[in-house]
Amino acid sequence: MTQAMAAVWAEGVREHPQDWHMLQRFWLADLERRPQAGEPAAPEPGTEAAR
């Protein structure tokens, strides 16, 4: 089943290569966490103080 889905996506990318980016960061686990309302923003990577 997974291979069948990948084949369908591959065909779509082949037919519409300008739209391949629409498949990126699709799953919630792939997204970066965003602070909730009232929560302080996380520091930018590389700017954390050394402990």
Strands, total number: 0
Termini gap: 47 Å
Q: Unreliable stretches, pLDDT < 50, 5 or more residues?
A: none
Q: Give the proportion of residues in helices.
A: 25-40%
Q: Please state the average pLDDT score.
A: 79
How many distinct helices?
A: 1
β-sheet strand percentage: under 5%
Shape: elongated
Order of helices and strands: H
Largest sheet: none
C-alpha-based Rg, rounded: 18 Å
Instruction: Briefly note the structural class of the backbone.
Output: mainly alpha
Task: Give your account of this protein's structure.
This protein is an all-alpha fold and 51 residues long. The chain has one helix at residues 2-15. It starts with a helix and ends in a 36-residue tail after the last helix. 0% of the residues are buried.
What are the main properties of this structure?
single chain; 1 helix; 27% helix; mainly alpha; 51 residues
Give a concise summary.
With 51 residues, the protein is mainly alpha-helical. The chain has one helix spanning 2-15. It has one helix and no strands.
List the helices and strands and how they pair.
Elements: H1 2-15
